[in-house]
Amino acid sequence: MEEHTAIGNPAPALRPYVGPYVGFDFRGFPAGVHCGPPSRALTAVISLSEPLEVASGVDDGSPVTRFGGVAGGLMCRSVAIHHSGRQHGVQVSLTPLGARAVYAVPAAALAHQLVPLDELLGTSAAELADRLRAATTWPARFTVLDELLLRAVVGNADRDPAHRMGAQVTGAWRRLVAARGRVRIDAVAAEVGWSRRHLTDRFRSELGLAPKTFARVLRFEHAHDLATVHDPLPWADLATLCGYADQAHLAREWREFTGRSPTAWRRGEVLLGAG
């Protein structure tokens, strides 16, 4: 088995909108289904080899669709990435501000969906894929991403994504992310000067998730990150560290977000620890 990953930081002008780039090349692993977990980010993946085979749910009969490049919104469940033991591509994570800046749509327009990348980037999606595949090093590929994403941001600049998302929603989103979801929504609403109901309505209309749901996703993301290290904590300790009431609470949330119990998830993740 071979595993190669590379991390690249986007150009400074992109950093309010785009997280670190992740290049990956996994070979020789057993065929299986990788759970792409919910997270704080909207994720786009461009394959550098065979098309991606992705379903919008795990072990629930969701149909599998093939994508050369795919964009996903904020999710409340994992997507299922079917693979033959080889995965080779580039992953880009966008903030909710990035949805407006790069795609020219609010994050809510993509929530709970998988969309072909060309539906959002037009002809630039094909150019992006061709140039990424033609490049021979990860730094060169990350430079291509910088160039084309900056082009999209400049082209959408007249839409002013920071203003359109709104200062209160932006502030609430940042507060939830900083706390990894471990903050009362009433307190967040008070901080931004709104009622809880008004914050929930405005937050959902912009991001596609209610703030309480987004907080649960953030808590799960923290737990998932800790569970994927090579020597993870026992589940009970991990539950305490991430703010769950107990291990049973973590297990219920894990099943909801991945479609599997924590034990079944770990047993089925053949790419676990591969970057």
List keywords for this structure.
275 residues, alpha+beta, six-stranded antiparallel beta sheet, four-stranded antiparallel beta sheet, 10 strands, 19% strand
Describe, in plain words, how this protein is organized in 3D:
- This protein has about 280 residues and is an alpha+beta fold.
- The protein contains 12 helices and 10 strands.
- The strands form 2 sheets. It has a 6-stranded antiparallel β-sheet. It has a 4-stranded antiparallel β-sheet with strand order 3-8-5-6, with no helix packed on it.
**In terms of per-residue confidence, which ranges show pLDDT below 50 for 5 or more consecutive residues?**
none
User: Taking Cα atoms only, what radius of gyration do you get, to the nearest Å?
Assistant: 19 Å
| Tally of helical runs | 12
**Mean pLDDT over the residues:** 92
Given helix and strand content, the structural type is alpha+beta
> What is the beta-strand fraction?
15-25%
Strand order of the largest sheet: 1-2-9-4-7-10
Query: Roughly what percent helix?
Result: 40-55%
The major pleated sheet works out as:
6 strands, antiparallel
Q: Could you tell me how far the N terminus lies from the C terminus, measured between alpha carbons in angstroms?
A: 13 Å
Shape: globular
String of helices and strands: EEEEEEEEEHEHHHHHHHHHHH
Strand runs, count: 10
List the helices and strands and how they pair.
Blueprint: E1 2-8, E2 21-27, E3 32-36, E4 42-47, E5 52-55, E6 65-67, E7 69-72, E8 79-83, E9 87-94, H1 96-103, E10 114-116, H2 118-121, H3 123-134, H4 138-155, H5 161-165, H6 167-178, H7 185-192, H8 196-207, H9 211-227, H10 235-241, H11 247-258, H12 262-268
Helix pairs in contact: 3-4, 6-7, 6-8, 6-9
